[in-house]
Amino acid sequence: MKNYFITATDTDAGKTLVASSLTAALVSTGKKVAVYKPISAGCENIDGKLVNGDALALQQQANSEQSIEQINPIAYEEPIAPHIAALKHNKSITCDLISKGFTQIQSLNADITITEGAGGWRLPLGNGEYLSEFVKQQNLNVILVVHMKLGCLNHAILTYESIINDGLKVIAWVANFPEEMPYLEENIDYLQSAITAPLIAKIDKVNSIDQAVEKIDLSWL
Ligand SMILES: Nc1ncnc2c1ncn2[C@@H]1O[C@H](COP(=O)(O)OP(=O)(O)OP(=O)(O)O)[C@@H](O)[C@H]1O
Ligand SMILES: [Mg+2]
Predict the structure, then answer these.
(1) Residue 178 Cα distances to 25, 99, 149, 194, 204, angstroms
(2) Rounded to an integer, what distance in angstroms lies between the CA atom of residue 7 and that of residue 119?
(3) Ranges assigned E (strand) in the chain
């Protein structure tokens, strides 16, 4: 089984767009794909059930018949840092809890599991833990989404270095540019020289998942 963890330079950088279009692309090649969005903060309360938009987007593209609760076991309504949301509800988020959910998903025997992170690489869970420690526990290969905008070179390089220093592999990266950026190609070129992993997609502003799917080069995965 192949397992990928999608992280990004920041929140709102395009993780869900990339995770869901990658899932759709892999499903279209005949693979069984399972998805995981362990933590979300920012949910709709539907009849007392917390439903996260990212989890829904991933569920729509995957083909492993997973419930929203399985895809997103740790959900908070308020769009705030998850460890603060957990504290407010007298709960705690731990790596062990996140790994438990991951083990459940692995029992589905999918060919590929795509896990979307939350925020950026060093997302605090509280009690001194970080989401990156779960990625390390499970030894997941990382796909880094870079939101191309001024300041992204610093964010991308710091994130890349952190992942490598954690002993993990960045298997691919994606340049996501929904907004215009002056000297975009020069910035992408710089990152290609700094990141020793293939650039598998350059995604400009898209209007649908299908449009994003067309831009992904799966040959590296
Ligand atoms: N290339 C793109 N074209 C059009 N819209 C985009 C593109 N990339 C991102 N967006 C939009 O920007 C918003 C943020 O993207 P997305 O939800 O994928 O980010 P994220 O990293 O998953 O955020 P979060 O940290 O909240 O999970 C969404 O509304 C998404 O549809
Ligand atoms: Mg998201």
Answers:
(1) 20, 33, 10, 22, 5
(2) 8
(3) 2-8, 33-36, 39-41, 43-46, 49-52, 74-76, 112-116, 124-126, 129-130, 141-147, 170-177, 199-204
Q: Please identify which of the residues 2, 15, 37, 88 carries the catalytic annotation.
A: 37
**What's the 52 CA to ligand 2 centre distance in angstroms?**
9
pLDDT digits (tens, 9 = 90+) for 35-60: 999 999 999 999 999 999 999 999 99
Structural domains for the chain = 2-220 (3.40.50.300)
CA distances 54 to 75, 129, 183, Å, are 11, 23, 31
Residue that the structure tokens 């395009």 belong to = 14
Pocket around ligand 1: residues whose beta carbon is below 6 Å from it? 8, 11-17, 54, 119, 176, 178, 203, 205-206
Q: Which pLDDT value is given to residue 1?
A: 82
pLDDT (average), residues 187-200: 98
Q: Which atom of ligand 1 is nearest to the CA of 42?
A: 26
Q: Is 37 a catalytic residue?
A: yes
The predicted pLDDT at position 110 comes to 98
